[in-house]
Amino acid sequence: MKERVVLGLFASHREAKYQDLQQNQERILGHPLVRAIALGPDAELPDDVAGFEPPDPDRIDEVQMPERTPLVLDADASQRQCVGAALDGRSFVMSGPPGTGKSQTITNMIAALMHAAGASSSSVRRPPPSTSSATG
């Protein structure tokens, strides 16, 4: 095994993401959710933008009836709180240690939102091979 170091210069100012951030800095910084993430409570946003009280987990079945909330995977009360918030159009941060069901909750949120939008299924397929040929 050989130890080696490789150095390089990377011109990040030429990358499209960097250019996009530079060109849209005011719009980005002015967005209420960006301000909420960056400044927390100091963002002084109206309660209807980022602040809300999720339903009490003990009352989740009363507030969000299971038969009216389509879930594709099992969900506990705290996961159903997140699904309900998503269905209500709320913006929120879902956090938790590994293995607590965040990915499962996101799957349920997507399914519930698709159902609410009237979608019945989702599929991804590869486009058929092109039958045309390029001529030079």
Characterise the protein shown here.
The protein has 136 residues and is mostly helical. It has two domains: 32 residues, no CATH class; 69 residues, no CATH class. Helix 6 runs parallel beside helix 7. The radius of gyration is 22 Å and the shape is extended.
Following the backbone from N to C, one meets helices and strands in this order, namely HHHHHHH
Number of helical segments?
A: 7
**Residue runs with pLDDT of under 50 for 5 or more positions:** none
How many beta-strand runs? 0
Strand content: under 5%
Q: Rg, please?
A: 22 Å
Share of residues in helices: 40-55%
Average pLDDT, rounded to a whole number, is 79
Could you give the distance between the termini?
49 Å
Structural class: mainly alpha
Largest sheet: none
Total domains: 2
> What is the overall silhouette?
extended
Give structural attributes.
single chain; 136 residues; mainly alpha; 2 domains; 7 helices; 41% helix; extended; DNA2/NAM7_AAA_11; helicase activity; DNA2/NAM7 helicase helicase domain-containing protein
